[in-house]
Amino acid sequence: xxxxxxxxxxxxxxxxxxxxxxxxxxxxxxxxxxxxxxxxxxxxxxxxxxxxxxxxxxxxxxxxxxxxxxxxxxxxxxxxxxxxxxxxxxxxxxxxxxxxxxxxxxxxxxxxxxxxxxxxxxxxxxxxxxxxxxxxxxxxxxxxxxxxxxxxxxxxxxxxxxxxxxxxx
Length: 169
Description:
The chain is mainly α. It is built from eight helices and two strands. It folds into two domains: 1-99, no CATH class; 119-169, Arc Repressor Mutant, subunit A, CATH 1.10.10. The longest helix is centred in the middle third of the chain and has 31 residues, at 60-90.
């Protein structure tokens, strides 16, 4: 049983010593990659270090797993996005691909866009991406999603509003 820790009172070293190996194993079990587990474990403790106001931790493992879970979700989403991008690049000619710098900028843009669209329903995200990235017409999107063109317009508007709101925030 873990004892309660008050991180602001300088016990972060103890938190790290008592829970680092356990957290790393917990992440590794879920991701199946010891290297990513090591990185995400460190990122979890960096996140704890950067917190300005931390409560007394009666359940330190629950607190750490909540942070680590969020980091794992971000990692998996970014990995999936990178795979999809690399798959798309594999289907392009060398003239279409561009420089390594432009590819890196495009991937970063896709990651930012994914973050902006997070939380929207799948059909809303899909409609927005089809319209913006593929240039599909509302009619084409409606046919693909099995909805009306008016619904597609609503989806795209909702996604644009979310992006604008988050960019202004």
